[in-house]
Write a structure and sequence with these properties.
275 residues, alpha/beta, six-stranded mixed β-sheet, two-stranded parallel sheet
């Protein structure tokens, strides 16, 4: 599938096929910028970032909420301490499935049920939209081929996130640390370029806790923050273009750098009575 994408458009492909495509993604763009750097992006692109089991629960919840994605496989064990359980888990990974222990399977089922009960999130995911479609387009300013895989869209875009805490304060921190303000602009740009939505169409993030009672919070991002994301995305595409043309993927620095503690760190030492 990855070698037949020759024009901008919406493609129905597996998650594995999508991630194998060399076009620049939103997560890749964020990896090119601080606090990461192009050298880390290039290494992970060439070698893979490795599987992280802590994401399995979130991927499984996506499967039940959106109705698409990798199949779930329940491992008949209380944990992965035995060789049999480990072998069953690894075989599921090899088949492209998501292995879950029985209590984890119960959790994602409860999460999906709780989300459907939420007055706004349940309404959003019942709109008859399209889930997990892969979008490809070419950035007109840099000529960089880009990709995006949106969770769900109708006349608006919806992105579903699982997390540990859905208080507004924690969500703000997640939006900042994970760069979701960049993701919104990236996905919106993709959908607008392909004529799927209007430029001012709503974009909703649906956050859900992975622990009982599996609370849900739906948020929209401030327009100023999305504009910051747009500027960062533009810079990332320029870096990607330049690195691709030169074959050089810079690290943080090749020189000897002089650093100083941040103002916050200095204040902390001051109040601790050290200075």
């Amino acid at each position: 599938m990855t070698d037949v994408i020759t024009a901008p458009g919406v493609y129905d492909m597996t998650e594995e096929e999508y991630h194998a495509h060399p076009a620049l993604s939103s997560s890749g763009a964020r990896k090119l910028l601080p606090p990461s750097c192009p050298a880390i992006f290039h290494y992970e692109r060439e070698n893979g970032a490795g599987h992280k089991r802590e994401f399995d629960l979130g991927h499984a919840a996506h499967r039940l909420v959106l109705g698409v994605g990798s199949e779930l496989h329940v491992v008949d064990a209380d944990n992965y301490r035995t060789d049999k359980a480990k072998a069953d888990r690894d075989a599921a990974y090899a088949r492209g499935e998501i292995p879950l222990l029985p209590h984890e399977f119960d959790t994602v089922q409860a999460m999906a049920a709780k989300l459907r009960e939420h007055p706004r999130a349940g309404e959003v995911f019942a709109e008859g939209g399209v889930a997990e479609q892969s979008l490809f387009w070419t950035d007109p300013e840099t000529g960089v081929q880009c990709r995006a895989r949106m969770d769900y869209f109708t006349n608006r875009i919806v992105d579903y996130k699982t997390t540990t805490n859905v208080s507004l304060d924690h969500i703000r921190k997640s939006v900042d640390s994970w760069g979701y303000y960049c993701q919104e602009d990236w996905y919106r740009t993709a959908a607008v370029e392909l004529g799927l939505i209007e430029p001012d169409a709503p974009f909703l993030f649906v956050f859900q806790s992975k622990t009982a009672p599996y609370l849900v919070t739906v948020v929209e991002l401030d327009e100023i923050d999305v504009r910051i994301g747009r500027d960062r995305n533009r810079l990332a595409r320029e870096i990607f273009r330049d690195c691709t043309e030169s074959g050089v993927w810079p690290t943080y620095s090749d020189d000897i750098e002089r650093i100083s503690l941040s103002a916050y760190m200095r204040r902390r030492h001051y109040y601790d009575g050290i200075i």
